[in-house]
Amino acid sequence: MLKAVLVFLLAGLAEIGGGYLIWQWLREGRTWYLGLAGGIILALYGIIATFQVFSSFGRVYAAYGGVFIVLSIGWAWLVDKKLPDAYDIWGAVLCVAGVAVMLLPRT
Question: What is the reported pTM?
Answer without folding.
Answer: 0.83
